[in-house]
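We treat protein structure as text, and this decision shapes the records that our systems exchange. Because each token names a local backbone shape, the row as a whole describes the fold. For reference, a complete record is included directly beneath this paragraph.
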Amino acid sequence: MSQALPPNGAISDDFQDGNYAGWTVAGNAFGSAPAMGALPNQQAVAGYLGNRLIHSFLGGDAPQGKLTSATFTIDSQYVGFLIGGGNHPNGTFIRLKINGQTIAQSTGSNAETLKWDSWNVENYIGQTAFFEIVDSVTGGWDTSILTISCQLTSRKTMAFSTR
């Protein structure tokens, strides 16, 4: 079984407080608060940390929406996060933006198990950035599933396996 290994570093947000405080919610895909596991009619969700996560399966595959974080200053070499859900690079993804430009972007791998991903943001240290989490797809595997333990860290994130 694969387990998430959290990186050391400052947590930007992990949504364990049960709300989207500091984030702007658009559309109806993400609901009014982070979920506590899989939603009705969804496969089991695994690999997330804590008791809550965000995802866009609220009401099935049809709802669309976007979450936008508050701005923050990049102060570490990497940004790490857990991601799962649909593999739609132009439709379901998390991205990092600076001055209106997308600096990095990741999508799921058509799996309900979240896996660590990270971006090297060393060249942007000191700059102001924000995250966008988007689901603009309707249909199969349109879900964006994330535990945004978005962490600013000095090392790349990874996973380890247990038996």
